[in-house]
Protein: Thiamine-monophosphate kinase
Amino acid sequence: MDKEAFAISCFNNEFIGDDGAVVGNFVYAKDLFVEGTHFLKHWLSLEQIGYKSMTVNISDIIVMNALPKYALLGLGIPKNTSSDDIKSISNGINIACKEYGVKIIGGDTIASDKIFISLTLIGELKNKPIFRKNLQTNDFLAFTGSLGDSLKGLRALLNKGSISKKSRFVKPMLKDKFFYKASKFINSSMDISDGLGLDLEKLCLASRKGVKFIKKLNTLQIKSGEEYEILFSFSAKNLKKIRQISKQTRTKITIFAKATKGRYKSNARKHHF
Amino acid sequence: MDKEAFAISCFNNEFIGDDGAVVGNFVYAKDLFVEGTHFLKHWLSLEQIGYKSMTVNISDIIVMNALPKYALLGLGIPKNTSSDDIKSISNGINIACKEYGVKIIGGDTIASDKIFISLTLIGELKNKPIFRKNLQTNDFLAFTGSLGDSLKGLRALLNKGSISKKSRFVKPMLKDKFFYKASKFINSSMDISDGLGLDLEKLCLASRKGVKFIKKLNTLQIKSGEEYEILFSFSAKNLKKIRQISKQTRTKITIFAKATKGRYKSNARKHHF
Structure:
């Protein structure tokens, strides 16, 4: 049983099933970031943990085409956490807040065995929201940036190696500038958190579409999760505009497939419990 | 060091410091409800855990004078949790949602050693928000319902006894009907989660006021936390109206003090870590 899918099914309604939930002019997203599940304590500094927890949530707001504005923070920390440690976590959170113009407006702090950060982000729509369910037949499918570095970093850590603080596993690099500018030409989007293969499957499922690859991707590109690059689609007629904006904003994009009628199932393994 | 207060101080701004954060016409509140901190697993059924986690968050929205509308749910559950168990937790949450007209619009589910529920509630303001910081000198201070039952229940559980499923520790009874109706006559309010003594101290601190007791309360009434009754204040000129609404809505209220200039410090012990 996929417990996450089952839990979602217990609350099914029209709001659920995208990176964020749209209510009027606002978009809401919530993610948990937990020691032992998303990171081990010696993998990341407390500041990096704070920073990453914020950016992965901000990522959800961006790909819905909303501006991140406010956040509520649920913080679980062990009883022996020092004030310096709390300061480090909050520094990381505040750095991300400053970078993306977010204000922490509330939250809760409790003692827990393991560090956990539960963030709810509130975004404001600039324009129309962009959903997963709007992938159109014959749309080009593309992703921003490069994929693979996050899984490479994770594998190094799992092999007791170390990684650069610039690794995408440590520091997601959100492609907001490209995305906001390109948004009026984009039909569907989501961020790449579980890996391109699995996320593409979700996008296709939401839109009831299939995929024809036009570019060969390697296993690392397909399987690497926690990339926080953007998977998006656009109509062929906007190809030139998309390429222009990619150039203007110096954001690499890779067009790798076309959407077809039908279905798509990735053979990448699910990480969910 | 009070770690919660320290964590809050790391993010200080004008939104923080009340039961909920007001942004435009919306009120946001976030609470964590965690096994080992707020409950032991054998104290409450999974359905009761789900129900209580929702109602304590809804309580925060009500005392700000907003209508609870939407919620985002972060759910941490052990790997061996069965689908029946997930169903039980979600049943409890859904019962509370139905009772108060709330829709779950998103969230996240992960594996964790202990059950934790992180809820963000979104409320819509009917009228003016009611803050802690608006307690006026000479206001009457009152609370809804009866205080003490929750601590009595907790003590029974700590002594390996059992409690009725009607105990306030198990099932908070929110006083929304009275509060919404009385709200235009109310100056300041908050819910009683840490105990009347400590919560009164917070109310007074937010408003820079003191307290003169006009009614003797017992230790149980002063110390019992997780009551989710409402502590509120109103001007003497509205006393008759408040009594009327209390009668109309069959909601017991106890007027126990008057606000004064000065400060108030409770000698109740803090539970925070």
